Amino acid sequence: MKLSELRPCDNCGGPIVPIFYVVRSSIAVFNADATNQNLGLMKMFRGSLALAETMSSQPEIVKIGGDEDKQLWVEIYLCQNCYIGDVNLALLAEKIGKQDEESEGA
């Protein structure tokens, strides 16, 4: 990570030195067709999930947005105090997303 990429704690705005935490989150979505296929095969194989996943043409039933496009990740920087305290990650992710949109629009 470059020095230019660092920013203060996203929760309290305080310094993040000497040690800080980066929490990454991204949306995850079930693929309905793959899920149905795996569950159907599991039923055919009398509950064997391992066999169903082996025989399935679509063994991965969940797509994680950040795996496909790194811009879908939200990185939350937290100082040590905030990391062990009460933090609402959803609100922070929304706040960071709005800041990123504003900086791109500028």
Describe this structure in words.
With 106 residues, this protein is an alpha+beta fold. The chain folds into two domains: 1-26 and 73-106, no CATH class; 28-65, no CATH class. The chain is 43% helix and 17% strand. The strands form two sheets. Strands 1-4 form a two-stranded antiparallel ribbon. Strands 2-3 form a two-stranded antiparallel sheet. It is elongated, with a radius of gyration of 20 Å. It starts with 19 loop residues before the first strand and ends with a helix.
Brief description of this entry?
This protein has 106 residues and is α+β, with helices and mostly antiparallel strands. The protein has helices at 32-44, 49-55, 65-68, 80-84, 89-105, and strands spanning 20-25, 28-30, 62-64, 74-79.
Oligomer: single chain
Strand order of the largest sheet: 1-4
Order of helices and strands: EEHHEHEHH
Shape: elongated
So how many helices? 5
Please indicate the percent range of residues in DSSP E strands (runs of 2 or more): 15-25%
Note the gap between the termini.
24 Å
Report mean pLDDT, rounded to a whole number: 90
Biggest beta sheet summary: 2 strands, antiparallel
Low-confidence stretches: none
Estimated radius of gyration: 20 Å
